[in-house]
Amino acid sequence: MTAYAAYDLVAIGRVGVDLYPLQHGVTLDEVHTFEKFLGGTAANVTVAASRHGLRAALVSATGADAFGRFVHRELLQLGVDDAHVQTITAGPPTPVTFCEIFPPDHFPVWSYRYPTAPDLLVTPESLPLKVIREARAFWSTLTGLSQEPSRAAHRAAWEERGRAPFTVLDLDHRTEFWASGEAARSAATWALPFVDVVVGTAEECEVVTGEADPLRAARALVDAGVALAVVDRGRRGALALTHDELVTVPGFPVHVVNGLGAGDAFGGALVLGLLEGWDLERTLHFASVAGALVSARLECSAAMPTTSEVHALLSDVEVADGAF
Questions:
Q1: What is the pLDDT of residues 119-135, one digit of tens each?
Q2: How far apart are CA 118 and CA 321, in angstroms?
């Protein structure tokens, strides 16, 4: 009998299908053709981690439909264990997301998840608690707190882990999933005592903390009790703060094609750095370059870079410890 091996990363949350336009610089009504990809923040982060050689699994759900079958197939092809992705029958369909592509910084998104989506129907009773408890890192998103029973499932998962490192909350704020910014902030505030790492964009951190300045926002998160706050500033780089260390790194210049998957690539690379015990500067450089690589490509999940691809670009980045 094969011995059980804990996952390096388990993520819980959104999964679905991304339909990206092949005509750029035009609105959806003018688009003629689309290409289909695996999508959803939690799914993308597990794919990103898998590309770095980490053993990753997703806890989520799809509908009993063709897009659900596509999701399961793509997860496996991209190196992610789908054993804990349920198929919900007689429920909502697998969600589809469209976007418009206006490089370098305008990518409107429309998520068809009305009135709910299968990944928000994951229940506490359906969770693989042993898998979650023993994972070296557990990744969750703010979106998962927007509805029940998903919110209760997140609490059950966090209680099972007992805030063990690394229990990560990705702020992943999508306004269409919330009645108001205050509702999202309240949910995040409720979640902070359960997690030890928080990561988000500057805009997402402002929603949660009320602080527009990235450093003040990170400080507010650390003051709330998390061990590490990471602010992904995209083309402007990244910032990380602990109780006794502040690190900032510049962005890596690339020709942006589609910026939507950059944060998920950043997240998967961040997990690698945390699990490998890298110092924060090395971790942030690596994660920032991983995000930049994806922003230079059309797709998200299938575009996640390998460790060697990131290292190839890092030859141009001066890192204090010389590890690269």
A1: 999 999 999 999 999 99
A2: 45
Cβ–Cβ under 8 Å, residues 127 and 157: yes
| Burial class for 90, CB neighbours closer than 10 Å (0-12, 13-18, 19+) | exposed
Residues 6+ apart with CB under 8 A from 272: 49, 52, 54, 286, 307
d(CA 81, CA 210): 37
CB–CB of 128/84 below 8 Å?
yes
Tokens describing residue 139: 């990744």
Pairing between strand 246-249 and 238-241?
A: antiparallel
CA–CA distances in Å: residue 152 to residues 19, 146, 155, 235 = 30, 11, 5, 36
Q: Tokens 């490998």 map to which residue?
A: 276
CA distances (Å), origin 121, targets 19, 156, 235, 277: 23, 14, 35, 35
Residue 99 has pLDDT above 80, yes or no: yes
Average pLDDT (173-194) is 95
In the numeric block, which tokens belong to residue 229? 């706050």
pTM beyond 0.90 = yes
Q: Which residues pair with 59 in a beta bridge?
A: 12
State the CB neighbour count (10 A cutoff) for residue 4.
8
Task: Encode pLDDT of 253-298 as tens digits.
Answer: 888 888 788 999 999 999 999 999 999 999 999 999 999 999 988 8
Q: In this predicted structure, what is the pLDDT of residue 236?
A: 86
- CA 71, CA 57: separation in Å to the nearest integer? 13
Tally of CB atoms within 10 A around 30: 10
3-class DSSP state of 232: strand
CA 211 from chain center: how many Å?
A: 22
Q: Would you say 157 and 140 are in contact if contact means Cβ atoms under 8 Å apart?
A: yes
Helix (H) or strand (E) holding 61: strand 56-63
Q: Residue 40: what residue type?
A: G
* Residue 212: Cβ within 10 Å count: 11
